[in-house]
Amino acid sequence: MIFIIIICEIHLTENIDVIIIGAGTAGTYLGWILAKNGHSVKIIEKDKRENVGNRLDVIHFESDRVKKAGLPPFDPNKQDCIEIRDTSTVVTPDFETEIKTRVYQTIVRLTPFLNKMYDILESDSVQLEFSTKYENLIFKDSRIIGVKVSNNGEKKEYMANLVVDASGTNAVVRTSLPEDYGVETFTLGPNDVMYVLLQYIKWKNPEIPHPETDTGYNYWLLWFGPSLGENQAILGVGQPGSYENARLAREDFLSEINLPPYEILKEEKGFTPYRRPPYSLVADAFLCIGDAAAITYPFSGHGVTATWMLCKIAAKVISFELKKGGYLTKERLWDINVNYFRDQGAKFAALLTQLSGILNFNKKEWSYFLKSGLIYKTGDDDELPEPNQEFEEDMSIKEMIGFISKIIGGLIKRKLSLTNVKKLLKANSLANDIKNHYERFPMSSDEFQPWVNEAKKLWQKKKTAIKKLNNVEIEYK
Ligand SMILES: Cc1cc2nc3c(=O)[nH]c(=O)nc-3n(C[C@H](O)[C@H](O)[C@H](O)COP(=O)(O)OP(=O)(O)OC[C@H]3O[C@@H](n4cnc5c(N)ncnc54)[C@H](O)[C@@H]3O)c2cc1C
User: Fold this and answer.
1) For ligand 1, what atom is nearest to the CA of residue 52?
2) Which atom of ligand 1 is nearest to the CA of 132?
3) Which residue's CA is minimally distant from atom 18 of ligand 1?
4) Each residue of 187-232: pLDDT tens digit?
5) Is residue 36 predicted with pLDDT exceeding 70?
């Protein structure tokens, strides 16, 4: 017995530039671009190589971000790519109007994609360790210097200049930091996430008209996405609070629409962060990315390519500092915060706030908003409306006047209620203040606390939106 304990406690120690916990899309991408810059990178993943990511089969990547990330192009003839799309449809909740929109999406199979990436990473000298679990951080003089991991009872210690938490929604490293380490240690509660239910369906009589592939019913936060085969679709729905809320929203939708029969081939569920990220993503020898840092597009809950943009910023700063040598203090990593929060972070913070105005609208109001082009910018002539790719409020004066006159028109025609319009305008104004505040993210960590105090006051002003469906009222905190 004593002998066995001694065997299990044998420690192997190794020094690495960067150790990343989690080989999902976030950790894999950051590890790859750091290794290409010449740094030694080790990624620790608790799952078996062939199983990573299998909680989700089909996943959507924003094609423009894939390109920006510098990923090898996707090929729909390969195992990891189903389709590359450029259009989508949105249907008004009264089912009267279909709006075609321009949306550039690459439809990917997650596990084959990750496995393709692992081969690429290994050819770029990234060390991948599967079936290995993060156990705890190693500190010296109260500062992180490495991690302890375990593989089948064998414990190992890795010393690193930087530890990255890319462990997904559990954020196993961030939540185990000492409270005063400099990054918030919150866990994700029911109101911090969107619970998503996916049903892979097959139309039983495909000749009977049914929603086209990639059709959104965004009043219910529900969509029919592309799936694996002919006459198939993924019926997805996401709501905060509980899986039950998501199920009830789907039930309400199904009671209103007349769908032809379909069979359910398989089901998946999971949750995606729907909250602001920690105020700082970095501390001494620490960075968090991906779901572990709650980085998602507020309007879709998608997280993959949103984090790749953060990873690009992070890799630049980390490489620059690693080349200089020495310990990577919070101050030396601070530019990651500055460059992220002043740009994408500020835009996402504003969008999250705007949602608290939009989500109050009832069915009639939502239909009016969609039909009058208030949500999607209507293109000229036969152009398709495009989503705002850089997520900027880039309305010209003419567009602004058009927007306001449509709102006033909606009020006069009683298509919009004054209460909800007021809530929208308040949320928009707060979104603007929050965006401006994030765009002034402090250049140095010395000015961080006053900035956080002000940010907290702004976030406290964000109101809860309430959607009243026939069978449930859902709160968006
Ligand atoms: C139903 C659903 C549909 C979604 N659809 C989309 C979509 O279409 N497009 C999109 O962009 N996003 C989508 N998302 C969100 C997206 O899945 C996440 O934002 C993204 O996968 C986050 O990547 P990540 O690498 O941060 O985390 P993860 O993919 O969760 O990877 C984290 C990895 O860390 C590992 N890990 C955890 N704990 C430990 C430990 N102790 N030791 C070692 N390893 C550990 C895990 O095994 C995991 O492999 C969806 C989410 C859900 C729930």
Assistant:
1) 49
2) 43
3) 303
4) 999 999 999 999 999 999 999 999 998 999 999 999 999 999 999 9
5) yes
Q: Calculate how far, in angstroms, residue 246's C-alpha sits from the geometric centre of ligand 1.
A: 19
Domain assignment of residue 100, yes or no: no
| Cβ–Cβ under 8 Å, residues 30 and 166 | yes
- Please state the pTM of the whole predicted model: 0.94
* Residue 129, C-beta contacts closer than 8 angstroms, at least 6 positions apart: 42, 43, 44, 45, 149, 151
Positive or negative torsion for Cα 372, 376, 377, 382: negative
102 to 303, 411, 461: CA distances (angstroms): 20, 29, 34
Residue 441, domain extent = 347-476
Query: Is the domain of 172 the same as that of 217?
Result: no
Is 313 within a domain? yes
Could you tell me if 207 and 243 lie in one domain?
yes
User: How many structural domains does the chain have?
Assistant: 3
CATH of the domain at 220: 3.30.9.10
Residues 230 and 351 in one domain: no
Say if residue 358 is in the same domain as residue 413: yes
- 441 shares a domain with 421: yes
Is residue 95 one of the residues assigned to a domain?
A: no
DSSP annotation string for 390-442:
T------HHHHHHHHHHHHHHHHTTSS-HHHHHHHHHHHHHHHHHHHHHHT--
Question: Could you give the CA distance from residue 391 to residue 350 in angstroms, rounded to a whole number?
Answer: 9
Q: How far apart are CA 59 and CA 270, in angstroms?
A: 13
Indicate the average pLDDT of the chain: 91
User: Phi and psi of 125, rounded to 5°?
Assistant: 75, 20
Report the pLDDT value the prediction gives residue 381, as an integer from 0 to 100: 45
Which atom of ligand 1 is nearest the CA belonging to 273? 19
